[in-house]
Amino acid sequence: RTYRGENGRVGWRALCATLGYAGPRISEALDLLERDVRLHDPAASRLWVSDSKTDTGVRHVEVTPKLRDILLAHRAQKIRLGYPSEPERPFFCTRTGTRWDEGNVRERVLDAGARLASEKLVQNGLPPLPHVTPHTMRRTFVSVMLLATNFDVPFVQSQVGHTDSKLTMDVYAQLLDRSKRAHGAAFDALLADAQEALYGAQSGEFSPLFSPPSDLGLSTGISPSPEFGSGMPETEDGRGGFRTCDLSRVKRAL
Question: Is 80 exceeded by the pLDDT of residue 83?
Fold first, then answer.
């Protein structure tokens, strides 16, 4: 849907899927040869990245089942349309068998695809995508794979290349920070447990956490102390006279 050229080029979706489902650099994806894309074994499909920035970046990248289906469909379409498919040809290539240009991929694939996706998001009442680059896709892969593997950092580093260990750890730290947002819910849950232990299960509308039951004086014969009531005098700082240590008084009253 995004390419407007006249040479019938195919494979834009397969390239986007490779960037998002495997996390290679854009240069690594475009350097893949037919012999590097090994899809014959469903349980061990992989990409062989043989031309990386450094020797330590040379690696096997596991191919997920969904990505395997997309890459198989791309290969079948190439053969059906007469594209070169010899082992030494680029997996993503023009009709004449030459490698795609990175600039064209950014402009005609990622930028145009992001615009289409943003239009769809806006139609559904959601914010548009931020600026999308090949590195955006790579970071997204790292984020999702860390979550999918329960933060198996060594495995994710091996998938994106050892030289990107800093990238992996940066994303890992950000995900850990986001996970700490659950601490607030845990805090609320602990206080709710304390409230139930003190006052029993509450029904109806929410009542202040440290307020005594409304029938405290009737059921126990004890008059509510002013320090618990709404008429409790405020302190000089305007915060009221209740303190956390007054929990012990509540317990005694109950």
Answer: yes
